[in-house]
Amino acid sequence: MYHYTNEEKGWTVDAVDEPSSLTAGTEWRKVPSMAVVETVAAATDRSQLDLPPLQESIEADALDDLLTAPSVSVVYVSFQYAGTTVTIASDRSIIVDVQ
């Protein structure tokens, strides 16, 4: 099990090793699109600069707007990014599954 924390950037990650994947869960506190990049970098042990632009996988501004808009229910968005499956929600949770 891994635990990553960066209070300055507003995230913590708990990760569990599995035979074919690494699943990391965290809670985002700032901009959702930035949380995706930071969490994927931590989960894959890569620099944020080594990751492809998030825009190649999903419209970052639309993601931010969707997840920060007032809503009566939790909104979930799942997509592929940098060899991972990302699920991020308006309840501030984010899961990164590394295959």
Structural class: alpha+beta
What is the approximate shape? Answer: globular
Report, as a whole number of angstroms, the end-to-end distance: 16 Å
- Using the CA coordinates, give the radius of gyration: 13 Å
Q: What kind of sheet is the major sheet?
A: 6 strands, antiparallel
User: Reading side by side through the largest sheet, how are the strands ordered?
Assistant: 1-2-3-6-5-4
Low-confidence stretches: 16-20
- The domain count comes to 1
Order of helices and strands: EEEHHEEE
* Average pLDDT for all residues: 80
Count of discrete alpha- or pi-helical segments spanning 4 or more residues = 2
Number of strands: 6
Quick recap of the structure?
The protein has helices at 32-44, 60-68, and strands at residues 2-6, 11-17, 22-27, 76-81, 84-89, 93-98.
Question: How does this model look, in words?
Answer:
The protein has 99 residues and is an alpha+beta fold. The chain has one domain. It is 22% helix and 36% strand. It contains two helices and six strands. It has helices spanning 32-44, 60-68; strands spanning 2-6, 11-17, 22-27, 76-81, 84-89, 93-98. It has a six-stranded antiparallel sheet, covered by helices on one side. A hairpin with a 4-residue loop joins strand 2 and strand 3. The longest helix is centred in the middle third of the chain and has 13 residues, at 32-44.
